Amino acid sequence: xxxxxxxxxxxxxxxxxxxxxxxxxxxxxxxxxxxxxxxxxxxxxxxxxxxxxxxxxxxxxxxxxxxxxxxxxxxxxxxxxxxxxxxxxxxxxxxxxxxxxxxxxxxxxxxxxxxxxxxxxxxxxxxxxxxxxxxxxxxxxxxxxxxxxxxxxxxxxxxxxxxxxxxxxxxxxxxxxxxxxxxxxxxxxxxxxxxxxxxxxxxxxxxxxxxxxxxxxxxxxxxxxxxxxxxxxxxxxxxxxxxxxxxxxxxxxxxxxxxxxxxxxxxxxxxxxxxxxxxxxxxxxxxxxxxxxxxxxxxxxxxxxxxxxxxxxxxxxxxxxxxxxxxxxxxxxxxxxxxxxxxxxxxxxxxxxxxxxxxxxxxxxxxxxxxxxxxxxxxxxxxxxxxxxxxxxxxxxxxxxxxxxxxxxxxxxxxxxxxxxxxxxxxxxxxxxxxxxxxxxxxxxxxxxxxxxxxxxxxxxxxxxxxxxxxxxxxxxxxxxxxxxxxxxxxxxxxxxxxxxxxxxxxxxxxxxxxxxxxxxxxxxxxxxxxxxxxxxxxxxxxxxxxxxx
Length: 550
Description:
By secondary structure, the chain is of the alpha+beta class. 24% of the residues lie in helices and 30% in strands.
């Protein structure tokens, strides 16, 4: 037999190049994951898929700290609010079967629900515009979170609460709406929400390791959930899984979640036109577009269009991203509400499409003269003013805001600079008339043009003693299933939101603090006895009160 050595050599070369590229991509993925998760801590399972097939599958950390058990890709996690995808698709399946219309009033299926004279539709429940008060906003939520409730008992905890606004007038993320969707599924199917999802979705798609999160059942490879406080990692607060129900009760694995995404992509459960309604946002009564559709929010990552949803529940943080044109799916499941799984999945998705976020390894050295050429004030389309200035040999950025927070920016080239986490960049240039301008790059791009405006003073920090700071330590509720843990170490104070990384806050005086990682101001509030009862957070022109829970 005659062998074509030239052909064999070319074939081997192509195989070697392809394998090398795959190994290089795997190393880049590993670098991103290992930056956030460590082997001896609560961890995560991560999957990246291209065109429906896994190209990266990783487990890191411990599924049980007490038993010293390593995480494996087959581990089962609570999905938290990713559950809403399944609830939304179940409703859309019923719509396609002609059993409901999204314009139906909810009283068609729940006749005794008090709507305060308003017409609340299924559409309003799906896209969080109903105005119904979210039961997880209840300041006593943690008190009854340990108590099993029937679905009707759960609905009774919020149905008589005053509405936040008229249906369709505003968007406010709302767990109560998805509880009512679960009730509608039960009324139409004459079965439980649990059975409907397991029989019509999980079994149909072969999601054999997915189920309703019943804590009394033995579930192989189920992880232990953890939280973090001043003393380190602790077991997560107990939550009766009768409470999240259709808003957050399901459990799954990264492999099963890929089956789920493939079913969506291939229109196995619902038509493409039906899915479009879910993933392309929606509108308010006044025609204003909102990015939340039905169970997903729109996203734009480095110019790539997609949809995503995150989840956070006691001791769990989850995030899933799908980029439509590139066919990239990233799912991350973590057994601790102490780290930002969303940032990890975004970075993985950006890397998978060949547009990775830069890191400090990409920073180059520039002379002060080259950096100073971009010093000045820039005004953007949304009337935001950002100031670029030099201080102690470092180029810095300050956005005029409540906090006037200053950030270091680092050169990637002579005209391109990044913030430390790599997710935000500036790209500077000069127009034909010699005026400077910059593109501010996040998920979208906005153009800033040079203006003649003096830089306001940056916030000045003061040092407080541990005795002054210690009373602020504790857990504060900022939103439904969204808490902020305040910790104190010596004369430093830190904040950490559910599913996000810890960051330091700096004192202006004894009650007012600001962050340097974002334009955030925090004011701690005390009662008449001098006890800390809450804090108010100021960000992007909004004020939000967070009550102290522990």
